[in-house]
Each structure stands twice: as structure tokens, then as C-alpha cells.
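Feature request, filed as a ticket because there's no other form

It would be nice if the structure record came with a short human-readable summary line next to the C-alpha cells. Right now we just get the raw output. Example of a typical job, pasted below so the devs can see what we mean:
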Amino acid sequence: MKTTYIVSEYSKYDKTTENFILSSRSLNKKFSNKNCIFLEELIVNEKGLHEQTEFILKKYTYYKKLLSDKLNLIHNTSLTEKFWTKAFNLYLIRLIMAQWIRFNKFNKFNPLHHDAHVLKKDLYYYAIDTPDSIVNLLNSNFYQEQIFSIYINIFYPDFNLKQTAYQMDILEEAKYPKKYDFSQLKFSKTTILDTHIDNFKMNLNNKINHFYMPKLDISGFNISNKQREQLDFEDFLFIDDFDKFFLKSLKFLLPKSYLEAFRYIYETYDSIDISEAKYILCENWLSNDKLSIFLAIAKEKNVKHYSLEHGHTHYFKNNYALFSHSMVDKYISYGWKDSFISNLIPTGMWRLNPDKKYDGKTHESNVLFVCYGNVFLYDTDFLACHYINNSAQENYYNNIKTLMESISQNYAKQITYKEYPKFRGKDRGFNNEYNHIFKNCKILTNEQELGYGNLKFIDTCKLVIVGNIGTVFFETLYHGAPTIALYSKDHAFVEKQYIDLFQQLEEVGILQTCPYKMAKLIENVIDDPIVWWNSEKVIYARNNFIDKYSSPRDKFYNFLDEL
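Raw output as currently delivered:
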């Protein structure tokens, strides 16, 4: 008797299952009484991370050249590989990594021993752009179903499996304003583009312009079968089976922004007046293809792109910065230095206001718990530069659950939990399950904002608990609020040059790796956290950490003035 090969928890298996991906172990629990086989994890250790990163980068270099040539042929253009490198941004690496995970799981399928369902080709979903691809494809059960179906069609084209007929639960698209005349847009010498800098009302000089790029709606473009068929690759280009899998799947996965809508995007952005522009500083380009296409056009016109760091991840091995810095003229960090990044400028973090410091005398009785970060139970956002897979996500979820179960109800009642932002559109069931962990706490919904980075709220809190080491942790630590953060050594490998600093924070309790010990410390300090926070060892560890990692925004001001 054949076993059923499970690739997701989609409704065809269990109509009551929430619509988000759980790990193989979670699947195993749900289907333990059925004759099923489950996807295996792509197990990674620190050595394996390096090996996989080298593999992914090698494939990235190969695929980028092939795809650039193919798109030039399809669009009848002769754009340089540097242009396409910028236009693809980190999305191409991300897609390769996601496909590598799938390939390693799906190649265990044996049609002689396993039964499964596949999607009809006419039900495949074609992403509009890269943000849409990340939300609706890379982070959905439907992605698993569609990629598995593509895999079967590539490697077992003559093998008949049961077909499933259901449509994807597409998330609602953002509401676009009326059509904008981009030819009226004029860039100044220095322009800060798509960066949240205005939330802090920074006093930029008159020579510097700051704004968000107006929305360009390409949702109305239909699929072009002709262009999709042109995105086929000859068999002689396949060095191994993964090449065959990845390159043949592109015709079904590449967003419309690179095919059907590309010429429209290019011509629209080419009409923008950047004749006086010399520098564009931009933060939100890493996975935004339309913005990246514009920056590629600007680069072709000799306008320099200075990338503002987005999020704190530079301390992790194989982090974002190590990939993205090569795509820009200068990489502007929050204040840290790295000898491996030759074009790095450590100007400081524009969010960090040296005039705003935590006042320990005016705090109330609130304890704030912020869980921004890797709380999803997805493995589809696994990058070569981020060790986030199913095991890591499930481990994180269980650690947070264990932490809250270990804190007594009396103390839990003092905690205000900031709900993780929901997806656009329909509620996919994530928040209800995760919020249940904080059933004894006060929960601030998404409608109750705390202010950007929660900085407007910290002065009313006597303690801030952070669910991961990220931007919120750095901001809160810099502004001086008593802070305790959860950190998983097993699923996040720190670069050697930063290990000593992390160990110092662990020794004084700011960083916690065990949820039981973290709960004990919280209960020990919660009545008066300032006593612990202002002890000599804690002050030394946190100041040493801040000095190495973060600089205030006055240095960023000085940098802008010198441009």
C-alpha cells in the first residue's frame, strides 16, 4: 500500500487546519493516525551553513547571467548584468534558497511507493511583483503545493497523480492611489528614498530631499504565455538536477514585474527627472523589484546608490550585508565596522536620538513584551544569509511558550504584549494561535500602535522584554530602558568578532538563551528592574555593546552635510 506524501497542511487534508506552514514534526503530530510520509527538514549546522551558502552563491552567479541574457532577449534590450544584479536585488538569492529547500525535500518522493496530489497548471499563481511573491508564494502552503506540482511535471511528466482543484487564498492587494505622472517627479542632488526617516521629523537641510516613491500599479497585467514560454532553458545548460528544477520552474514563478510589466516599469521610471541627482540613499530596496529597477536605471545614469542598513543582522554569519553591499556604491551601517565590507560607511543609526533617554524615575508598572522578528512557523523564508528554517521557527515558538508558562500569573498580568502585525487582507489564523501564549497578559492589538520602534512607549515601562535580537532590541538598549532579550544559539550563529560582546550580555542577563532561566530573571527583577539594570557589570556590558554596534543619528547628520 502506498503512503500519502504530505507537502502542506492545505484544506484538502484537513479543513479545520489553520492556513500557515508548520514543520514536519508538527505535521507528523496532526497526521499520525494516517498512512502518510512527511517532508524532511533540511538540517543545517554551522559548517553546513557555510557549505550551503557557497553552493547558493555559486548557483546565484550562474543563474543571474542566464536569466539576464534571457530577459534581454525577451525584452529586446541590451541591459548590463550590473543592471540586472540591481534589479533582481536579494530576491533572486531568496528564491534560489527557497527552491533548494524544496528540491531537497521533494527529491525523496518516489511515485512507486508514494501517493500525492498535484495542482492543475491552470490553477498556478503568478506573482505580480517580488513583495507579492514573498507574501503569497514564498510564505504560503499554496507555494508548497505549486512547487511540488512543478517538480512532478519536470521529473515525472508521464506519471499520473491525483489532481486537486482549489484556488489559492490570495491576500488582498494594497490600495493604489490614482495613476501618478512620474515625469513630474524631480530628484535633488541628495535624495533619501523610501526610508522611514520622516517618522522622527529629522531636520534635513534644504539640499536634501526625502520622500517615498509613488505607487506604480502593475496588477492589471495579464499573463503572456509567449513570454513565459520564451523563459525556457536548453537542457545542455543543466549541470545537475537542481539546475533543471530551478530554471524550468522560473516560467511559473518569476513575477510579472520582470516579464509582462517590465517594459512599462522601465519606461515609467526612465521618465523621472534625475538630471541633478548624485546620491540616492535608500533602505527598502532589498526585496522590492520596482524600486530596484529604478535604482538600476539611476545607476546606469551615474547616480550613486548608498544603501541604508535595514534591520540588525550583521552579527549573524552570512548576513544580509555580506550579500547586498556588493550591489551598491556604499553600504551605510548603524555604526558597526567590518573589514570584510570594503565599501562600508559606519555613519550611525538615524533612528537613535541621543537626546531621548529613558527616565527610570517616571516609569509606571508596565512591562512591555515585543515579539517582532522570527516568530512565523515558516521555512519558506529561509535564506542562505539567515538561519531560519522549520526547526528554528518551531524552537522559537516553543521557547516563547515555555517562557510565558514559566512566569507566574501575578507577574504575567503586569505584561503588555504587542501583537505581531497581521498580514494584509484576510486573517490567516496566525495571531490567534500565537496570542494564546499571552492569555494572562494584556494584549495590544495592531490597531493600538506604540509609535515607531515602540520608543514612545518605553518611558512608561519599567521593563522591556524582546523576543529576538533585532532593531527593537538595539533601539531600546540604546535609549537606556531595562531590557531582556531571548536568543537561540542553536539557530543563529554569531560571527567570531562579535561573540565576546554577546557573551558579556549573556553573563549579566540581558541576553537569555534558556526560557526557564529567563523567566526566573524576569521574576527576580520585575519589582524594581533599575536596581539590576544600573549595577556596575550590567552598565559595562550594555555600554560596551552599544559602543561597538550603534552610533547616534548626529553622526548620520554630519555624513549628510558632507555629501
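Something like this underneath would help us a lot:
The two ends are 71 Å apart (CA to CA).
DSSP finds 20 helices and 17 strands in the chain.
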